[in-house]
Amino acid sequence: MGLIIGLTFLGVFSVIALVLVAVSSRASEQAKQVHATLDSALATDRQEDREALVNLRKSELFSTIPWLNRRLDQLELAARLQALLYQADLKWSTGGLLAGIGLCFAVPAYLAYLRLDSVLMALPVGLLMGSAPFLFVLYKRNKRLNLFQKGLPEALDLMVSALRAGHSLVAAIGSVARECADPIGCEFRACFDEQNYGLELKTALDNLINRVPLQDLRIFATAIIIQKESGGNLAEVLDKTAHVIRERFRLKRQVGVHTAQGRMTGWVLTLLPVVLGVALYFVNPEMMSILWKNPLGIKLLWSAGIMIVIGGLIIRNIVNMDV
């Protein structure tokens, strides 16, 4: 019976995968035709120019499947996921991320059900594995934002040097876009291009903050807007802003050093019961299977899981300090 169910699942999955590949191939061919039309109309022969022109278009395509894209376009969650993917610098679509989450949930949950013969045990396994793609997106996003935050003071120093040399603010932003590495270079390049296409400085800075939601960048944007309204030496204002950002970054690292033991304690207390339970299952499966075959054991497992999550959140709230 289990073999029949497994073959049925693999057959259905294979058919769905083939349909998705066919639709994606058709969509990619249409995209190539559109790019070819743009190239012929704009007469761009260089690869760099072609990529720059394509990136100027604001793409809101959540999925290459038309009906799925229309459904996702109606959901606010899809736009938020698309923003997370952009901030993580991943070339995924929202539909692809949701499909990956569903696949990572269904396959492990099904295998756990075949192994343990318990829906209540297969469901947590599926939820844990299904969250892996989303956690990967968050990891890439945090890594990119941290890289942006580390390079922001040097970018401000470059702007200060350009302003003191007699350049305008827009030209100073353009120098950062040319000289700084990504992700700072690409984000300031987008801000520079938006101003060249007629957007106001405040609107371009607001868009930059929406793309890179960092408190240090908000300080930078607020300093520029206040200077524009009240006047003053912009180079000196940005120089002091860079100093404040450096001090905040130094204080964050100092707080991270003092809270390292607490964060490690939280990870150990959270993962130790799970790792120990898995190890005991491989040592003596019959003894551990009582927990999900007995109604009292199932209640104990759910109670333990809820207490582990609550304890981990409490420890995380203690060691996370706003600077």
Secondary structure elements and pairings:
Elements: H1 2-42, H2 47-55, H3 66-73, H4 76-87, H5 94-116, H6 119-130, H7 132-164, H8 169-179, H9 184-196, H10 201-211, H11 215-230, H12 234-258, H13 260-283, H14 285-288, H15 290-293, H16 295-319
Helix pairs in contact: 4-7, 5-6, 7-8, 7-12, 8-9, 9-10, 10-11, 11-12, 13-16
Could you characterize what this model shows?
The chain folds into 3 domains: 2-130, no CATH class; 147-253, Receptor-associated Protein (Up-down Bundle), CATH 1.20.81; 259-319. Helix content is 84%, strand content 0%. The protein starts with a helix and ends with a helix. It is mostly helical. 16% of the residues are buried. The longest helix has 41 residues, at 2-42.
What is the global morphology?
A: elongated
Fraction in beta strands = under 5%
How are helices and strands ordered from N to C? HHHHHHHHHHHHHHHH
- Low-confidence segments, ≥5 residues, pLDDT <50? 1-28, 41-58
Count of structural domains: 3
Alpha plus pi helix count: 16
Number of strands: 0
Q: Measured on Cα atoms, how large is the radius of gyration?
A: 26 Å
The largest pleated sheet is described as:
none
Helix content: over 70%
From the N-terminal CA to the C-terminal CA, the straight-line distance is: 58 Å
Helix-strand category: mainly alpha
Mean pLDDT metric: 79
